[in-house]
Amino acid sequence: MATANKLSIIPCGAMHADLTFLLLKPGVSIMPRGEKDNTINWVEVPTHCVLVETDEGKLLWDTSCPSDWETRWKPTGLQEFFPYDKVADDEYLDAQLNKMGVGLDEIDYVVLSHLHFDHAGNAQMFKNTDAKLICSEKEKEFALNFEGDFNGAHLKADYEGLNWETVSGDTEILPGVKLIQAPGHTVGCMSMQVDLPDSGTMIFTSDAVYMGESYGPPAAPAAIVNNLEQWFQSVEKLRGIQGKTNATMVFGHDAQQIHELRKAPEGSYT
C-alpha cells in the first residue's frame, strides 16, 4: 500500500460561535424548558490546515480564515456570529507556514474540503503560484454560480478568479492521500484520508463532522447543513472507512481534540 511520508497539522487559532451552529443535540445545545432562561453556550471553534508530504509533491489541505476577516466578512454579517478573534499574529496560515520553513512555491497542491469562508479564506495566497487548486466538482459548480457576492458561508471574494481543478468521486490524488466525497454540510464537501507508515491511517473530516460529539454514534447534526440526508450518509460512510482502516479521526472544529494532536511547527506524524 502506498503511503505519504509526513503529515503536519497546522493550528490557525479559533473563531467563537454559539454551540447550536455546530451541534444540534438534546441536553447540549437543545435545552429543556427548565433551562429556558440560560444564556447561549458560546464556544471556541478552532481552525486548522494540514500539510501532507509525499514522494510526488506537497499538498495543503484547506487554508483557514483570512487575517482581514472582519472587513472581508462584513457583507455577509458572519463576523458577528463567527468572530475569528482567538488568533495571534503568528497563527495566521502564512505566518505558520513561514515558521515551518515552507514557502508557497513549495506547495504543489492546495485542496479545499469545501469553499466556506473559514476553509477557503487564504486561497488567494496561491493565485500567482504553480500550485494546483482543487475542490470537488459539485462544490465549484455551486460556489461560482449563485447570484450575488455570497450565499451563506460561501463568499466569492475568497475564491473567485482562481483556476480551480476539480475531482468527482473518491480520488487518490497522491501516494497515500485519498479525497473522499462527503456531501451534506455543503453540496461538495470532502474529507481526506492519509495513510502513513508509522501513524497508520488518519481521516480529516473537515466539516462533514464538526467534532467528536457530532460523530457519536449516534451522529448529531449541526445548524449549518445543506442536505441532512446526505450528511447522515456521509458520516456513516466515514465510520465505515474508519472501521476498515482503524483510522484516527480528526474532526473539523473540535475545541478539545485540537489540544490532543501533535501540531506544527513542533510536532508531526509519519
From TrEMBL:
Residues 46-253 form the Metallo-beta-lactamase domain. SMART domains: Lactamase_B. InterPro entries: MBL_superfamily_lactonases (IPR051013), Metallo-B-lactamas (IPR001279), RibonucZ/Hydroxyglut_hydro (IPR036866). Its cofactor is Zn(2+). Keywords: Hydrolase, Metal-binding, Zinc. Signal peptide: none annotated. Belongs to the metallo-beta-lactamase superfamily. This is N-acyl homoserine lactonase family protein.
